[in-house]
Amino acid sequence: MTELGSRLKEARKAKGYSIDDLQEITKIQKRYLTGIEEGNYETMPGSFYVRAFIKQYAEAVGLNGDELLEMYKTEIPAPSNEDVSKNIPPTPTRRSLSGRSSNKFMEVFPMIVVVLFVIAIIVILWFLFQNSPKNEPVQVDSGNDLTMDIKPQPEKNNTVAPVEEEKPQEEEVVIEEPKPEQQLTFIETQGPTSTFDLTGAEKYDLKVVVANNTWLNIRDQDNMILVDKAVNAGETFEFDASALSRIRVRVGHTPGNMVYINEQLVEFPTTKTTQNLVIQFNK
Predict the structure, then answer these.
(1) For residues 265 and 89, what is the distance between their CA atoms, to the nearest angstrom?
(2) What are the pLDDT digits (tens) for 220-237?
(3) Is position 239 within any domain?
């Protein structure tokens, strides 16, 4: 048994947990928990999981996982780049976000064409009306350079008055301006905490896609705990934060896990295993 394993085992017993209890809390198989206490890391699926399981074990029994990993790093196999890359799923495409403005323009374009067509018809009719022939005096050449004005006869009372041509009414078209899209802006990072500003959003839906087991803690603007639980690999956790002005999301194990706000990925600014994401809502 290694020194790290002995310390973890003592902390577990001090909490009054059995191996079965710890398996229920961390969702880590009992044989892996026993292997950690005995220093037998060959039973683990890979060096990447060794560090992740040790950290989760430590936090479950009230110890600081990051400090233990740093203190006993010579006893723990370091993960290779290949192990890390296998556990980080590809970032989802944002093509749908960039295509919103072009889709709205295509919706408005037919309405613009109709307005231009109506304006063109009105201009043509006005031009024809202005250039229509009018009654003018007729000059008759008698050969003696004399001119005779022939005036139009007055109309009789029983004549039918000409019907005035009705001008086409201009169709009023209302063009809606596109609504501003949401924008997530990175503000700063202090220690394990990174702050973002969210503007232009009509809702505030949080989603955590879990690829590796992690501990999830969510607090509101008053630092009240809203969620404090373990989330297993393969699960998707969703939370409606529309009634809040600010949330803090603490992810105990960031590698491979992703956080979204309104389907937009919130990227972890650092490589720390445990990080806090603070999102401020500018409503």
Answers:
(1) 13
(2) 999 999 999 999 999 999
(3) yes
Residues making up the chain, counted from first to last: 283
Residue ranges making up the domain that contains 32: 3-86
Question: How sure is the predictor about 181, in pLDDT bands with cuts at 50, 70 and 90?
Answer: confident
In one-letter notation, the amino acid at residue 56 is Q
- Least confident segment among 3-12, 133-142, 200-209: 133-142
As given in the structure block, the two tokens for residue 193 are 């905490």
Please report, for the domain that includes residue 64, its CATH number: 1.10.260.40
141 belongs to a structural domain: no
Question: Distance between CA atoms of 153 and 172, rounded to whole angstroms?
Answer: 44
Question: Does residue 102 lie within any of the structural domains?
Answer: no
Residue 56 contacts residue 26 (beta carbons within 8 Å):
yes
Domain final residue, candidates 86, 117, 139: 86
Q: Which residue type is seen at 249?
A: V
3-state helix, strand, coil in the chain (%, to 5): 35, 20, 45
Query: In this structure, are residues 22 and 33 in contact, taking their beta carbons and an 8 Å threshold?
Result: yes
Q: Looking at the 3D structure of the chain, how many domains does it have? A: 2
User: Does residue 71 form part of some domain?
Assistant: yes
Instruction: Name the token pair of 58.
Output: 């430590």
Inter-residue contact 206 to 261 (CB < 8 Å): yes
The pLDDT of 35-39, averaged and rounded, is 86
Contact yes or no for 52/65 (Cβ under 8 A): no
Buried-exposed string 164-175: b where 16+ CB fall within 10 A, e elsewhere = eeeeeeeeeeee
Q: Which amino acid is at 31?
A: R
pTM for the structure as a whole: 0.38
